[in-house]
Design brief:
By secondary structure, the protein is α+β, with helices and mostly antiparallel strands. It is 29% helix and 23% strand. It folds into 3 domains: 173 residues, Aldehyde oxidase/xanthine dehydrogenase, molybdopterin binding domain (Aldehyde Oxidoreductase, domain 4), CATH 3.30.365.10; 190 residues, Aldehyde Oxidoreductase, domain 3, CATH 3.90.1170.50; 294 residues, Aldehyde Oxidoreductase, domain 4 (2-Layer Sandwich). It has a 7-stranded mixed beta sheet, with helices on both faces. Helix 8 packs across helix 9 and helix 11 runs parallel beside helix 12. It holds the Pfam family MoCoBD_2.
Length: 755
């Protein structure tokens, strides 16, 4: 009865609820304003917290004097680095949430106050005197790698080398992946192309700023309400940073107004807790938009070189990449993921990717949908596009000839299992979009992309209520429609209507540990946990029915939302519905529930292919997107609306990254565009309707074939757009974003060269 976690092809042919498109359970609350987000929480007697941030990109903190602030009426607490646990497990997070010896970027927190009003808190910040010794700074990744660059951390010696360097540097680590002999491969090639590429740092652009309310009681028992992608992770980090027992901190996740990886770590939550502990009252802390840009994690910027060799018949003989990623003032740029993803779409005999994790005087980076992959794939897919043109081969045919397939040895090591890249490429090539005619100054670009997906620690509960309805408790915040997907899978498993199942995101006191909502893991891992919990509940309900019928439990099976005797020999009984079984639960043993906890594996990797048409105005450099199509393998689309939304959302964010979005730093090391007025996100008028094609190559590691879809969608757009714009402009664009001035400059340079 319990079954296993492998894909069941026979069962998949008879899905009743999986693959349907019911209304989202949180939709009404969100459109009516009833949903409670991070800043919607208030506690009686709460104070307002504000953070003092460094105006300098790099400065030694010689002293902090908060006496004048503390003397002000209404100011109840001031905290600095001394109020946190110096022995916390994650030293970088500790130093990021409150600067200790040095401020490492403009916006780095140096102190915080709690006062009875926002105005009083802001006034108190002005009374805190900080004595800085200004130090040289560096914000560019290539400049930070130079021997004479200002050093951020005196104890940083590059990891991943054969020998420990004699001197510290800003290079935290070197990562290398690959196999074969690339030099031998290049010697076999008829054509070799080598190019340099750059991408700018971009922000996730979530509409809801970071917000939280913290309350530390007199007995040390603490509560935290927060907008986050992972409240269990918030609990672990905050407890460590404040020297608390994890059991004394209860964290509740609010609804979340966007995250995309940017709300997977802590920035202000430990500060609010420290202020509450010191003041003895609840403290509410909400970031301004400027603080979000200057002090919460954007993605990395990169500087890359890619070299690929190909034979005239289209066989890629070798691929090599050197990737430099900066992730802000602390280690952790996704350089390793970039190196692993760069050539993942190809089955190559000779491949090598080397990546460097570099620190600069910028805010500590955070994940942004498939961290690291969009940059390296942009570089690789751009060169692949050039090679296709050089040998006169259709870009899809070149990719299909060299595509990774079931059993291929990946560029980062393991062999692939069952994967859907070829299916995506074939579906994209056959799509009407690819055959549509183009006009003057228009170009078409294609690109493929990859993401790993993972499972992680997961714990879920299922309760059968006395009226036969089902309540689910999950520990993974819903950032992409996961509550609906959970309800669909449980309804499928129990064979009951979707409307009879309801899911909640439980707080940290109600469930065992759950990993963060990231890595495209939730529908896979929480879904599988609930499928297993549902199967346990079915077993129990069959036992209860058997008890009432006075027959062996083995003689009962579950179908169509009811227990059935297995045949005439088991007895002549009418099927007993879930409502009847639940209504009699008190007489047959008590509440009926299912529970499952595990460390999920078998997530199954994900591939996608995008097609985009653009038109370039040769007079202004403006890029107009004419048409966009996303083709991606979902394994099995549990709720197709959500899957399509993830595809479209990834494409839109990739469009912004490719065409407009970037962190702009001046020579003074300060961010120049820290508002949505100056940081150019794409809006509806910038975009066409985005077509989607859901490919379903089932993941063998999930009973319903699920693969995560949240991240792969942002990987191909940078390259697809670069290939399209390059074709439309008649010049190869290698520096993102491709803003009008850059495009116009490239067109002008080409004209000058031609003259």
């Amino acid at each position: 009865m319990a079954g296993n976690q492998e894909f069941d092809a026979d069962r998949a042919q008879d899905f009743r609820v999986v693959g349907t498109r019911p209304a989202r359970p949180d939709g009404m609350d969100k459109v009516t304003g009833k949903a409670r987000f991070g800043a919607d929480m208030n506690m009686p007697g709460q104070l307002i917290g504000k953070i003092l941030r460094s105006p300098h990109p790099h400065a030694r903190i010689k002293s902090i004097d908060a006496s004048e602030a503390l003397a002000m009426p209404g100011v109840k607490a001031v905290v600095t680095a001394e109020d946190f646990n110096a022995d916390a497990k994650d030293r970088d997070v500790l130093t990021n949430i409150m600067a200790r010896d040095k401020a490492l970027y403009e916006g780095h927190a140096v102190a915080a106050v709690a006062a009875t009003s926002r105005i009083k808190a802001q006034q108190a910040l002005k009374r805190i005197k900080v004595n800085y010794e200004i130090l040289p700074h560096v914000t560019d990744v290539d400049a930070a790698m130079q021997p004479d660059a200002p050093i951020l951390h005196d104890d940083m010696f590059t990891q991943g080398l054969d020998e420990k360097p004699a001197k510290p540097s800003n290079i935290n680590a070197r990562h290398e992946f690959g196999h074969g002999d690339v030099e031998k491969g290049f010697a076999q090639a008829d054509i070799v192309i080598e190019r340099d590429f750059k991408t700018a740092a971009t922000h996730q652009g979530y509409i809801e700023p970071h917000a939280c309310v913290a309350n530390v009681g007199a007995d040390g028992m603490s509560e935290l309400w927060v907008c986050t992608q992972g409240h269990f992770h918030v609990r672990s980090q905050c407890a460590s940073l404040l020297g608390m027992d994890v059991s004394r901190l209860r964290v509740t996740a609010s609804e979340i107004g966007g995250g995309f990886g940017g709300k997977t770590t802590v920035f202000i939550e430990p500060v609010a807790l420290a202020l509450s502990r010191k003041a003895g009252r609840p403290v509410k802390l909400v970031m301004t938009r400027e603080e979000v840009f200057k002090a919460s994690g954007p993605t990395a910027s990169s500087s890359m070189r890619v070299k690929i060799g190909v034979k005239k018949d289209g066989t890629i003989t070798a691929g090599e990449a050197s990737l430099n990623y900066q992730g802000g003032a602390f280690p952790g740029a996704p350089a390793d993921f970039g190196a692993m993803s760069a050539f993942a779409c190809y089955d190559l005999e000779n491949v090598k990717a080397v990546a460097f994790d570099v620190v600069t005087n910028r805010p500590k980076g955070a994940a942004y949908r498939a961290p690291g992959a969009p940059m390296s794939v942009f570089a690789v897919e751009s060169v692949v596009d050039e090679l296709a043109k050089e040998i006169g081969m259709d870009p899809f045919d070149l990719r299909l000839k060299n595509a990774a397939r079931d059993g291929s040895k990946s560029s980062y090591g393991p062999k692939f299992g069952k994967i859907g890249l070829v299916a995506c490429l074939e579906a994209a090539k056959a799509h009407p979009h690819y055959a549509a005619p183009l006009g003057p100054n228009q170009g078409r670009g294609v690109a493929s992309g990859f993401w790993f997906n993972f499972g992680g620690e997961t714990c879920s509960n299922l309760n059968v209520n006395e009226d036969g309805t089902i309540t689910l408790a999950v520990g993974t915040p819903d950032i992409g429609g996961s509550r609906a997907s959970m309800c669909i899978m449980v309804a499928e498993e129990l064979e009951v209507p979707y409307e009879r199942v309801r899911a909640i995101v439980a707080d940290t006191s109600a469930l065992g540990f759950n990993d963060t909502t990231e890595g495209s893991r939730v529908t896979f891992s929480s879904g599988m946990a609930l499928i297993k919990a549902a199967r346990k509940a079915k077993e129990e309900m069959c036992k209860r029915a058997a008890m009432m019928w006075d027959i062996p439990a083995e003689a009962v099976y579950w179908a169509e939302g009811a227990a059935h005797p297995s045949g005439p020999n088991a007895g002549d009984f009418e099927p007993m519905t879930i409502e009847e079984i639940a209504g009699s639960a008190a007489k047959t043993g008590g509440p009926i529930a299912g529970h499952h906890e595990y460390n999920a594996d078998g997530a199954g990797v994900s591939f996608g292919t995008h097609i985009v048409d653009t038109e370039v105005d040769p007079e202004t450099g403006y890029v107009k997107i004419l048409r966009y199509t996303v083709v991606q393998d979902a394994g099995k689309a549990i709720h197709p609306d959500y899957v399509e939304g993830q595809f479209q959302g990834g494409a839109v964010q990739g469009i912004g990254w490719a065409l407009n979005e970037e962190y702009i730093y001046g020579e003074d090391g300060r961010l120049q565009n820290a508002t949505f007025l100056d940081y150019r996100l794409p809006v509806a008028s910038d975009l066409p309707m985005i077509d989607t094609v859901i490919v379903e190559v089932p993941n063998p590691g999930h009973p319903y074939g699920v693969r995560g879809v949240g991240e792969t969608g942002i990987v191909p757009p940078l390259a697809a757009l670069a290939n399209s714009v390059s074709a439309a402009a008649g010049v190869r664009l290698t520096d993102l974003p491709m803003s009008p001035p850059k495009v116009l400059k490239a067109i002008g340079a080409t004209k000058l060269a031609a003259e």
